[in-house]
Amino acid sequence: MDDSPIADGPPLDTLLLRTFLEIVDSGSFATAAERLALTPSAVSGHIRRLEQTTGASLLARTTRRLELTQAGETLYAYARNILDLERAARAKLRGAPLRGRLRIGASEDFAATWLPQVLQRFRQWHPEAKIELKVGITADLLRQQERGRLDLVFGKQCSRAEASGTLLWEEPLVWVFAADQWLTVDEPLPLAVFPEPCVYRESAVTALGKTDRAWHIVFESSSMAGCLSAARAGFAVTVIADSQRSEGLRVLNREDGLPALPAARFYAFPGKHSPVSAALIDAARRAGQSRLGHRG
Fold it and tell me: In degrees to the nearest 10, what's the CA dihedral of 263, 5, 268, 105?
């Protein structure tokens, strides 16, 4: 069995594709088995059958995590589309578009950068569904979900161990500052951050704590727009996900005396399962793939 692109062969079983996607999205066979209500041995069996069908190795196990092979990357994108088309066909044949109200929470970066694409895709397939949106910090939104006030939360974490949701995608965190201004390396680094708790703030402080670079917080805002304004004005450096970069900002790196940052992982945290929330999660996943490509 090799890692070459998938060739012609037997039809792809959608049951096996669902198992494959769940393993990749959850990051483990055990978690996938729990979510699919299957035994771990059944999940492993599904992957063996899928690899036999495709004639390619799909997953590579490292000491720390599961990774997709080249063939796995290819199949992941197609599998998502195949299952989306199947779901759309079933809904069309039933003549019953999704209805209902969904209370969602979204971190501000998700709401500003990704949510328009997500809602556009979702609306195309489910025009009769209704959505209520609350924007806030991921940790606060998850607490509201625990109290039954939100059905679905879109947010971010920087550690897989901390997250219990469905991984949508991941992307680098970057330091940004005014494009037309320069920092003085021998002065404390001015930071613009969210109030605690915030994974961007924690990532910045942790990374700087491992260096000799002096720093101080000079701007704090509960709004991403506020932190970005401070950066564009040259008032302070802030941390954002790479997809949030826009005009008037430049990325800082080691040449500017700043350490590397971890990746930000964007998750969907569903409460009780519903067809509407599942459809919205699928729309979010597709939006991420179309802009970033799957990063595994």
Answer: 90
Q: Residues 34-90: pLDDT tens digits?
A: 888 889 899 999 999 999 999 889 998 765 677 889 998 888 878 877 876 776 676
pLDDT along the chain (296 residues), means of 10: 55 90 83 86 93 90 77 85 73 61 84 79 74 86 86 77 72 92 87 87 92 93 90 95 88 90 87 73 73 46
Query: What's the chain look like in SS3?
Result: CECCCCCCCCCCCHHHHHHHHHHHHHCCHHHHHHHHCCCHHHHHHHHHHHHHHHCECCEEECCCCEEECHHHHHHHHHHHHHHHHHHHHHHHHHCCCCCEEEEEEEEHHHHHHCHHHHHHHHHHHCCCEEEEEEEECHHHHHHHHHCCCCCEEEEEECCHHHCCCEEEEEEEEEEEEECCCCCCCCCCEEEEECCCCCHHHHHHHHHHHCCCCCEEEEEECCCHHHHHHHHHCCCCEEEEEHHHCCCCEEEECHHHCCCCCCEEEEEEEECCCCHHHHHHHHHHHHHHHHHHCCCC
Q: Would you state the structure tokens that stand for residue 195, as one six-digit string?
A: 């109030």
Residue matched to tokens 């999660």: 281
Question: Could you tell me the sign of the dihedral formed by the alpha carbons of 227, 232, 238, 241, in that order?
Answer: positive
